Amino acid sequence: MALRDISLTIEEGRKTAILGPNGAGKSTLFLHFNGVFKPKSGQMLYQGSPLVYRNKELSQLRKEVAVILQNPDDQIFSATVEEDVAFGPLNLGLPRDEVEARVDEALALVDLTHNRERPSQQLSFGQRKRLALAGALAMRPKVLIMDEPTAGLDPHMVQEVLELTEELHMKGITLIMSTHEMEVAYSWADDFKVVHQGRLLYSGPAEELFANRTLLELLGFQAPSVYRMNEEMHRSGLMEREPVPRDMTEMRLKMCRMNRRQVGGLHIREVDQEHVPSVRDVHGMLSNGKAVGYYGSRAKHLLAMTLPTDVRLPGLTACLDKMIDGREAVLFAEPDLVPAIVHHINNLARKYQVGIEVEKE
Fold this sequence. Notes:
Layout: E1 15-19, H1 26-33, E2 45-46, E3 49-50, H2 55-64, E4 65-68, H3 81-91, H4 96-109, H5 125-137, E5 143-147, H6 155-170, E6 174-179, H7 182-188, E7 191-196, E8 199-204, H8 206-211, H9 213-219, H10 225-235, H11 248-259, E9 266-270, H12 279-287, E10 291-295, H13 297-302, E11 313-314, H14 315-324, E12 329-333, H15 338-352, E13 358-360
Helix pairs in contact: 3-4, 3-5, 4-5, 11-14
């Protein structure tokens, strides 16, 4: 698909969703972002400077701007999981111990550590998607571009991918994602771009996009269910339109404000190699009626043998849902993610004018 008259800016440190039907030009656009394609007219800028299409400059660009293709088999070349993740760092000429450290880190992030020596073609489709992501993360990019990362995944795997992208965002990586799934895009992205027949039709916030019925009909899109629910309840006089919730958890917080219902508190406990709770500690929390969860890939790995699988809550949203039910929640998180978690909770409390007590233990 040829791109025509496209002019857009991706803001550093934000999550941008690129929307459009099949054949709209999204994948072509992505391959311009890291210099695989060169525009016939106009120019691509990275951090304010035009791209230079020479091997040295392109190699440096692709260290910082990583693209994950929709089909993982287009990106996996090596025989084993470990070899595939190590391919990029080895090509950078890094020392062997640095390569191994990056492989360890990337496999832990995507929860493939235990598949390290497994033949890559024996992995499931979802695992191969995570392997392609690990290969990109081993380069430690500043910008991560994902072409339909949730396509073909079951709901549990979709949630895992989204949780991982949130973690990467908290660590400062700029994220760009194409998707057909409006519910996913709406709950995830800060900024929205719409591409159709090679042209940019929209760039801006979600609420303006989904209020534009003419554009949605042209694209064959439907506004997300939580957006439509909020609009219908507003038209029926059941609630104010603002603030507009992005997912069902936020809708429930909005209803807590309307009904003056108290939200349970959140206790954040840092977890690292030296501070891992015992099974006895966790069972004590559960017997006291508290919900217990984790946030972050390293926390998940450290707690794998501690948290019973039937009570383990992946991510912050799951804990929030229990808190909205009136329960206290304990969230185990790695130390470098704690400030971002507190910031996120405080933002939600301000947005919906509800009291949420957050205690760091």
